[in-house]
Design a protein that fits this description.
Blueprint: H1 3-17, E1 19-21, H2 22-29, H3 33-45, E2 49-52, E3 55-58, H4 66-72, H5 76-87, E4 95-98, H6 102-111, E5 117-120, H7 123-129, E6 136-139, E7 143-145, E8 150-152, H8 154-160, E9 165-170, E10 174-176, E11 179-182, H9 185-197, E12 198-204, E13 216-219, E14 226-229, H10 235-243, E15 247-251, E16 263-265
Parallel strand pairs: 4-5, 4-9, 5-6, 9-12, 12-14, 14-15
Antiparallel strand pairs: 1-3, 2-3, 7-8, 10-11, 11-13, 15-16
Helix pairs in contact: 1-3, 5-6, 6-7, 8-9
Length: 279
């Protein structure tokens, strides 16, 4: 059997089940374990699957709403790097809340296969996380905004009132000197409750969001513990964030090709006592 044919069969099996063990793949294809491992490594490098301990999970395209799909392709390299860098901030056993956005989708993708409990109001993220046997999923219900597949409004807010997580990780429609903005009023109301759920609030945003104003203000900069961004973020905004006590993490340009989401961070400000020092 040609390697391309064998890898296509492997991918079809993993995508159909969401997850497959190494033993299952060896039996299904009738080849050696070392051959399957090499094929999985090739598929992992291509971004089609994510290797885990003892197998692999499907990591291909998550079909979402058209508007969401279009935004997913914007600044994709930066978003993938930010996703890896943000995942590196989490420890196995953590509970994390992810809002519905294209950057948080990359965070979720980087968490597949890890022993993490993910709480989300996003159908695309839930679809992705549900494929992993190691990553637990809690899906928040409510009115589903049709353009992005995100649950919003009173029901979603009420569901979250009894939830506590280590980190609430949110995207941003815009970041201005006076705070974080988003373009949907219902989304902002829901995200405010998400912030209340988290011991620590983390904003993930690529450099295009800085200096961009959106419809509704979510919060002030001082309410954010950490912000993960790319290397193109203006120095003036870095200074503003650090002055507000925000720890700024810069995702390495090639982090999504690296091993563990390597990133750089600026010095930790003493203005935010809840943030611990990391070396």
């Amino acid at each position: 059997m040609l390697p391309e044919t064998r890898r296509r069969q492997l991918l079809e099996l993993i995508s159909r089940q969401g997850f497959a063990t190494l033993e299952e793949l060896v039996k299904s294809l009738g080849v050696s374990e070392s051959t399957v491992r090499r094929d999985l490594e090739s598929l992992d490098l291509a971004g089609s699957v994510k290797r885990t301990h003892g197998g692999a999970v499907y990591a291909g395209e998550v079909r979402a709403m058209p508007a969401f799909d279009e935004r997913t392709q914007t600044a994709i390299t930066e978003k993938q790097a930010i996703g890896q860098a943000t995942a590196a901030l989490l420890e196995d056993g953590d509970t994390v809340l992810l809002d519905g956005g294209t950057t948080t989708l990359e965070v979720a993708r980087a968490l597949i296969g890890r022993r993490i409990q993910v709480v989300t109001n996003s159908l695309p993220i839930a679809q992705l996380v549900a494929s992993s046997q190691q990553t637990d999923l809690i899906l928040i219900g409510g009115y589903v905004y049709p353009r992005t597949g995100v649950a919003l409004g009173p029901l979603a807010i009420a569901t979250m009132q009894g939830i506590r997580v280590r980190k609430a990780i949110l995207g941003a429609g815009g970041i201005m000197p006076d705070g974080i903005y988003n373009s949907n009023l219902l989304l902002v109301e829901t995200e405010r409750q998400m912030m209340a759920c988290g011991q620590e609030v983390v904003i993930v945003a690529d450099s295009s969001k800085f200096g961009k104003l959106a419809l509704s203000r979510l919060c002030g900069l001082e309410e954010v513990a950490r912000l993960v961004t790319d290397s193109r973020t203006p120095d003036a905004y870095r200074a503003l964030l650090e002055g507000a006590g925000v720890v700024v993490h810069t995702a390495a340009a090639d982090a999504h090709h690296g091993s563990n989401g390597v990133f750089h961070h600026e010095h930790e400000s003493t203005h935010n006592p809840s943030v611990r020092t990391e070396e």
